[in-house]
Amino acid sequence: MKFMKIGTKPDTFYTEEATRTVISDIPSDLTIRINNVCFLLHKVPLVPKCGLLQRLYSASDDSNIVTLDLHDVPGGEDAFELCAKFCYGITINLSAHNFVPAFCAAKFLRMVESIEKGNFVLKLEAFFNSCILEGWKDSIVTLQTTIKLPEWSENLGIIRRCIDSIVEKILTPTAKVSWSYTYTRPGYNKKQHQSVPKDWWTEDISDLDIDLFRCIITAVRSTYIPPPQLIGEALHVYACRWLIDTTKTRLPHSSGSQTEESKEKSRRILESIVSMIPADRGSVSIGFLLKLLSIANYLGVSPVTKTELIRKAGLQFEEATLNDILFPSQLSTDQHYYDIDLVAAVLGSYLVLWRRQSPAPTENIHYLRSIRKTGNLIDSYLQVVARDVNMPISKLVSLAEALPDVAREGHDVLYKAINIYLKEHPDVSKADKKRLCRMLDCQKLSPEVRSHAVKNERLPLRMVVQVLFFEQESGSRATTHKPKFSTRARQEQPEAGAEAKQESDNKLQREGIKSRVPETSERDFQKRLEAKTARGESEKGKEMRGEANSSSKVMDPKQVFQRRSSR
């Protein structure tokens, strides 16, 4: 920061209650009243340097003591005192912090060259041009101080010239950046980095008011086309500087942590940030968008802003990680901890966009991988939120069923989530258990998970019978279609192997239609199993039955049904 010292005399001003005066052997003959403060000064040297005082003095009575009211002086009593000290020749230190009120007050008092040579306005303009506009942080501090005198600063061109200076430095090639700047990213060490980072300017301008920050960003984007990620980084830094983080813990609504006034300011900041996010996908991370969405829920922003955030987050949802979506609900009406409704809203937006893709999403390998990745993310999320003892089963089921069948190549992760929920909620009703388990497809469970499901006492009987039925049918098919290795078959093996390889390569594209084990009653399962057993005994020979028994050790579904029914 640069300073300029003007004047040589010691400071003889002193304040006594609401009166400010200067120590002098000459009695005061000029009284200036500003708001609730009274200045007891002298006509000389003030009047000769101030055009306004000359006009007001000439219009006053010819009494020995003249009283003037200057309640509308910009910057108030402190700015006027700087001007008065300049008139007395008292030393004052000018900096970016006090330049704006001093300059506006000097202009108001008409301390210009036409009144007296070497006047205050001339010296202030010299300091502004040679020091403030040439400096990086000086320009930012000066621009920030204009918020107290916006109209004067705008009319005098201070805001425009500061913005031009800041933008010019932002657009300077990084190799030519020679001034001091603030850069405190985690893990960054200036001494270890010879080159200047491209986003070197983002932290310093985050100190500005949101309206001034917007002016800077708008000016940068209108001057040249910066990388969208650079603008996104500036927005991210500004949000971290001014917005409360709601993704780490649940904030109490009844406490005085944020007054309504500060909440309103935060809402204005968040809505401005959202409006400035570049349209380019990837300009900001999905984690940042979800964080803004969580903050928006807490602050209660406008529906337009929230809808726009959900739309932008939906565009990039496939890039999200589990940590990105694990944030607490900030609604006072929610007893559960995790904000599952917000995740469901973003997932819904993602699915709307996914289904609009052309060609059909299931026929395109990229879209199929995208939905599979998202499906795995949601199932992993369900495992975490299932541990919440206050999580309603309706919200868990709703989120799980929102995914299309093709999103899950396997149901192992979904099974684990359901098992966790049943374990953490032992009082769940039979109807709700069936509601949970009807989402599972036995054919998409691995042998290890099916083995666990058969022994799982938390599952409803229907689910266990379905798993056993599928196990028996799988064993029967494997036995019935056991290959006979003839000479001709061995000759056809290379061709069959090539076909299998081709089939494996096209696996993702062929999948997309889910087949379920029919949901029938336990009695239907019994009848089918008994008929199948009788038919198998009449058709199979002793040797074949021996092979079937040796190749499958699955428990008889009929025995399981009778055992579970007797409890």
From TrEMBL:
Residues covered by the NPH3 domain: 199-474
Keywords: Ubl conjugation pathway
Annotated source species: Hibiscus sabdariffa
Top-level taxonomy: Eukaryota, Viridiplantae, Streptophyta, Embryophyta, Tracheophyta
Family according to the record: Belongs to the NPH3 family.
Gene3D superfamilies: Potassium Channel Kv1.1, Chain A
Xref: InterPro entries: NPH3/RPT2-like, NPH3_dom, SKP1/BTB/POZ_sf
Protein name in UniProt: NPH3 domain-containing protein
Pathway listed: Protein modification; protein ubiquitination
Keyword Phosphoprotein: no
